[in-house]
Specification:
Number of helices: 11
Shape: globular
CATH architecture of the largest domain: Alpha-Beta Complex
Radius of gyration: 20 Å
Order of helices and strands: EEEHEEHEEHHEHEHEHEHEHEHEHE
Bound molecules: zinc ion
Helix content: 25-40%
Oligomer: single chain
Number of strands: 15
Strand content: 15-25%
């Protein structure tokens, strides 16, 4: 099969033929219909933070069709459409049994394999899609689940004034769920206005950039300070910014992944008694809920999909996304 293979930082992904995968016990082989490019894929192939090993095939936001089932697989059959959770688990520990393979006793791995024609997944970690939801649309289930986690994990009350920092796919997804969960006014702050239409499509009422007069304009917009700040920018300074912009005794949830040193002054969070929560481990319930909502026809977040590309276009796009670009969620169609 054709796959996009990582060798080392500084070298673009290489499209080449690799052996077709075989399903082990409890596993299925999937034909990947779409796989989104995520900031995490970019981080794992750069020379900072944790870097994936040579020969690694990135891609963990896939939607796919089951084409082979391994021994012991009963809940899936050939032809089923699924979204696999990006993490593998032992299947028997408490976390795995509760649908949270990220917190398996084996520890998290580099999520991988989606930038290929075929992908092996654990049957237990695949969420089955109804036929009424297309595989093309289901490719955003993973980023939607991440955004949902950001709303679920911290204190969130209906009517809350929600501020999202960053308007990438995770910020857009967090804003979408805030709206679905009954937020009051929702504002987003981004580096430019490029993604304003996408943010507004999912329910953001006020869109600001770092060039605006903050926090003054935000306070005017909310009629006070934000009750909840969801940090989705993942850049140095973002946590300090979130703490600055939240109200005293408000909540900050950090979904952004910043792999650089980031000195900030914790006392500012203490003085305001900020509830600071980090979040990363989506569970299968979040995946199922995202599938349900899309299937019910609440498809506003599809606005985040700005590009669908063929495998041959992936290496150049992957490099381009490491710089600031106008794209939001780019999906790869490995079969094209
Ligand atoms: Zn991702
Ligand atoms: Zn486990």
């Amino acid at each position: 099969m054709r796959a996009a293979v990582f060798e080392k930082p500084g070298q673009p992904l290489d499209i080449r033929d690799v052996p077709d995968p075989e399903p082990g016990e409890g596993e299925v082989v999937l034909r990947v219909e779409r796989c989104g490019i995520c900031g995490t894929d970019l981080h794992m192939t750069e020379a900072h933070g944790a870097t994936a090993p040579a020969g690694f095939i990135p891609g963990h936001e896939s939607s796919a069709e089951v084409i082979a089932v391994g021994k012991g697989v009963e809940r899936l059959k050939i032809g089923d459409h699924v979204v696999p959770h990006p993490m593998r688990g032992c299947g028997t520990c408490a976390a795995c049994k509760s649908g949270s393979p990220y917190f398996c006793v084996l520890g998290p791995q580099f999520p991988c394999g989606g930038f290929a024609e075929y992908l092996v997944a654990q049957s237990a970690n695949c969420v089955t899609l109804p036929r009424t939801l297309s595989l093309a649309d289901a490719a955003i289930v993973e980023p939607l689940a991440v955004g949902m986690l950001g709303i679920r994990i911290n204190t969130f009350l209906p009517g809350a004034r929600v501020l999202v920092l960053g308007a990438g796919p995770v910020g857009i997804a967090a804003a979408f769920w805030a709206r679905q969960c009954g937020a009051g006014r929702i504002a987003a702050v981004a580096t430019s206005r490029t993604r304003e239409p996408i943010a507004r499509a999912v329910g953001v009422d006020g869109f600001f950039t770092e060039g605006d007069n903050l926090p003054g304009e935000l306070t005017d917009f909310f009629g006070g300070m934000a009750d909840v700040v969801i940090e989705c920018a993942g850049v140095p300074g973002a946590i300090a910014r979130a703490v600055e912009l939240v109200r005293p005794q408000g909540s900050v949830t950090v979904l952004g992944i910043c792999e650089h040193g980031d000195p900030w002054i914790p006392a500012l969070a203490v003085y305001k008694e900020v509830k600071l929560q980090f979040a990363v481990g989506t569970n299968l319930s979040e995946f199922r809920h995202a599938v349900d909502v899309l299937d019910r026809g609440i498809v506003d977040p599809l606005a985040m999909i700005t590009d669908v590309i063929a495998m041959d276009q992936l290496p150049a796009m992957f490099e381009a996304l490491k710089q600031r670009t106008s794209q939001c969620k780019v999906l790869v169609n490995p079969g094209a």
